[in-house]
Specification:
- The structure is a single chain.
- The chain has 4 helices and 18 strands.
- The longest helix has 12 residues.
- Strands 7, 10, 11, 12, 13, 14, 15, 16, 17 and 18 form a 10-stranded antiparallel beta sheet that branches. A two-stranded antiparallel sheet has the order 1-2. A two-stranded antiparallel ribbon has the order 3-4.
- It is mainly beta and 272 residues long.
């Protein structure tokens, strides 16, 4: 039973309740059977730190790991390349590459043999002309060794036999390749060489320029309105040597371009 005091509090007047019986607690609680196995595994972060520790102390590389909001910095070596190898026991061993040394008086030679590529047409032509007689060079080997004599190559009349545009007779042999162009269009040297002729051609070529490229290879530029070179002048591939025209045996403004091998004309398209 309980009684109430003057302040409204309740007070127990009966016997105290009996205490609760104690419950026995097991000394050994059951645990996860795989707990120890999981503890033995190394996390990726642990593998990185073990590798950094085995590699030595050197250059600092910031490795940020987004784990529980912590940013950690791991120290890695700066003394050279490091090769990581597995020792077979689950650990990673780091071995530095040996240093390459040389005597202080050692001579370093940076020279190299001549290298020619499709991006070096002058080198290709020079190699062709120095390696063999120009007359024995095949079309496959010579293709692309000469540069275009004009920026825009519009074929007007090909090399070989044709109907003469002047007489109308058939069977005329055309000694070069004609490229249509307005009079005054820039004409470029097809390759480096020496100017051996500039002037009037008595056999229908009009104003003419001849460039010798060595070893029996020559190029000629005909029907020009004017030329800007002189005999003996050295020119480079792509230099402007003249302006197209319609002088000589011509029916309109164009460039007559020839390639000569040992004095004989050949098809220019085999060299362009």
């Amino acid at each position: 039973m309980t009684t109430q005091t003057t302040r409204g509090r309740r007070r127990a007047t009966g016997p105290a309740p009996e205490p609760r019986a104690a419950v026995a607690v097991l000394a050994d609680r059951p645990r996860d059977a795989h707990r120890d196995e999981r503890r033995g595994r190394r996390s990726p972060f642990r593998q990185v730190t073990d590798f950094a520790a085995a590699s030595g102390v050197g250059q600092r590389a910031g490795i940020a790991l987004a784990a529980t909001g912590l940013v950690l910095t791991v120290t890695v070596p700066a003394t050279g390349p490091v090769m990581a190898t597995d020792t077979g026991s689950g650990t990673v061993a780091a071995a530095s590459q040996p240093d390459v040394t040389a005597a202080s008086a050692a001579k370093i030679d940076f020279s190299r043999t001549a290298v020619t590529t499709k991006g070096d047409p002058d080198g290709k032509l020079k190699q062709l002309l120095s390696a063999q007689s120009v007359g024995s060079i095949t079309r496959a080997a010579s293709s692309g060794s000469l540069g275009a004599p004009m920026e825009k190559m519009v074929t007007a009349s090909p090399f070989g036999y044709r109907v003469s545009p002047i007489t109308g007779g058939s069977g005329e042999f055309h000694r070069g390749q004609d490229y249509a162009a307005q009079c005054g269009t820039a004409v470029h040297a097809a390759a480096s060489g020496t100017v051996t002729f500039t002037g009037w051609h008595p056999f229908g070529g009009g104003n003419r320029v001849v460039i010798d490229h060595g070893n029996g290879l020559e190029t000629t530029y005909n029907h020009l309105s004017s030329s800007s070179v002189k005999v003996g002048q050295q020119v480079s591939r792509g230099d402007v040597v003249a302006m197209s025209g319609t002088t000589g045996a011509s029916t309109g403004c164009h460039l007559h371009f020839e390639v000569m091998v040992n004095g004989d004309v050949v098809d220019p398209t085999g060299w362009l």
